[in-house]
Structure formats: structure tokens, C-alpha cells
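Propose amino acids for all 144 sites.
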């Protein structure tokens, strides 16, 4: 599923019994945001999730790749402990520190039809790079 802007979109890729999440953006922050949308889309259609409740998260790491895994695992943690799904991600990146507000709602099985439970983001096929065309890519495999 692609957004209207050529660079801002997310997609999944297959990896054995698990699934890869991939985000693209004009900026590193946008690629991270799109990877988070892909994460939600593993569980349900993000369009089904009302962005009515906010949750704050912060992550810091030594490099972009570890920061991406920490970011996705922070979202997975909030999904599991709060029993919520998220459809909007407002984030700020400063070097290798990320601060974000996640917006979503409590899981409603009748409304969201959750497909799987995500166990965690992994270092498998982990990449955060700016391509030759200037577009940022943020990807990894998540354990389902």
C-alpha cells in the first residue's frame, strides 16, 4: 500500500514464517514512521484504527539500525501492555534519539480483526539507509 507522495509509503516483504516491514520516506523520520505503519498493518488495516488516544515513547541507540529495532519494539510493547493498536505516529529524531507520540485505540476484535500477534522486531534484514535517489529506507523482519 502506497501513500500519494512517491517516497512516503510502507510495504511488507516475506521472510519464512515471519514478515518484513519496510518504510520509505524523504527523511529518516518519515521512513521510521512508515515502518511503524507497516508494523500496524501486520496486525490489522491501519485505516480501521481510530487515532483517539496518545501514548508517548522515547528510544535512544548507538546507530540508526538499532534505533529502528528499539522503536518498533517500543511500539510492540505498548501494543501488548496497553492492548492497543496505533495508526498515527508523530516522531522527532535527533541524531540517534527518538521521541514519539503514538495515537490509537484499544483493540476491538470485531472492528480490527487482528491477524497475528507480533512478538518482536529482529535484526534480520535490518537496514536504515538513504538510497542514491535521496529516499530513506528503514526495514527489518518482525517475529510473529
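Proposal:
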Amino acid at each position: 500500500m502506497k501513500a500519494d507522495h512517491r517516497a512516503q509509503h510502507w510495504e511488507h516483504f516475506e521472510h519464512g514464517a515471519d514478515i518484513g516491514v519496510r518504510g520509505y520516506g524523504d527523511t529518516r523520520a518519515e521512513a521510521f514512521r512508515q515502518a511503524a505503519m507497516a508494523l500496524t498493518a501486520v496486525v490489522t488495516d491501519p485505516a480501521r484504527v481510530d487515532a483517539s488516544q496518545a501514548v508517548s515513547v522515547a528510544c535512544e541507540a548507538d546507530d540508526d539500525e538499532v534505533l529502528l529495532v528499539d522503536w518498533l519494539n517500543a511500539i510492540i510493547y505498548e501494543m501488548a501492555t496497553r492492548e492497543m493498536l496505533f495508526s498515527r505516529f508523530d516522531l522527532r529524531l535527533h541524531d540517534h534519539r527518538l521521541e514519539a507520540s503514538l495515537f490509537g485505540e484499544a483493540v476491538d476484535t470485531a472492528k480490527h480483526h487482528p491477524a497475528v500477534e507480533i512478538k518482536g522486531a529482529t535484526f534480520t534484514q535490518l537496514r536504515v539507509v538513504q538510497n542514491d535517489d535521496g529516499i530513506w529506507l528503514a526495514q527489518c523482519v518482525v517475529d510473529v
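The first helix runs from residue 28 to 43. The domain at 9-143 is CATH 3.55.10.10 (Archease, Possible Chaperone; Chain: A; domain 1).
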